[in-house]
Specification:
mainly beta, Immunoglobulin-like, 4-stranded antiparallel beta sheet, about 45% strand, Alternate-type signal peptide domain-containing protein
């Protein structure tokens, strides 16, 4: 074979390989990156203002020496500080640890009421919607011992383990 035929066959084989997938054609393309931005996660924290007080009929009581009797309603009032940083942040405020011994636990009723002391916190039941920042929330726990109770004598209501929990809701 002559050189021209051999060169033509070799050139055709090279083009065939490129067209057949062993190589690629470079098509026009362009890329662009997003502008540099960083999204930072918010936070949610709860601080006890340590100003809580137990009262009966609006008068402060000493819970370590007070003796509850049927027909009594006690209230615990306190302010909590919430640091809520996040767009559209909502949280549910609950409490736990308020327990009584024996029959007293079944007899007493315990309720939690939450209200806002700040303009950047809107309360609906125990759910709080925040605009970013620090907010004050008022909490009130009511403990009622019904007048009809015939049991529960000498039993105790433990106030030492009460904790408030703020949990983000979706």
């Amino acid at each position: 074979m002559n050189k021209l035929v051999k060169g033509s066959i070799a050139g055709a084989a090279g083009i065939a390989l490129l067209l057949g997938g062993a190589g690629t054609f470079a098509l026009w393309n362009s890329t662009v990156a997003l502008p540099a931005h960083t999204i930072t996660a918010g936070n949610l924290s709860l601080v006890n203002d340590l100003n809580g007080v137990w009262t009966k009929d609006g008068v402060a009581i000493n819970p370590t020496s007070y003796r509850i009797v049927p027909g009594t309603t006690l209230e615990y009032n306190q302010t909590l500080t919430v640091n809520a940083v996040g767009d559209g942040l909502k949280a549910n405020l609950t409490y736990s640890g308020l327990t009584a011994t024996g029959n007293l636990d079944a007899l007493i009723t315990k309720t939690l009421a939450v209200s806002s002391a700040s303009t950047n916190a809107t309360v609906n039941g125990s759910t709080i919607a925040f605009t970013p920042g620090t907010a004050k929330v008022n909490v009130k726990i009511t403990v009622s011992f019904p007048a009809s109770a015939t049991t529960g004598q000498n039993e105790t209501l433990n106030l030492n383990a009460v904790t408030f929990t703020l949990t983000q809701t979706v």
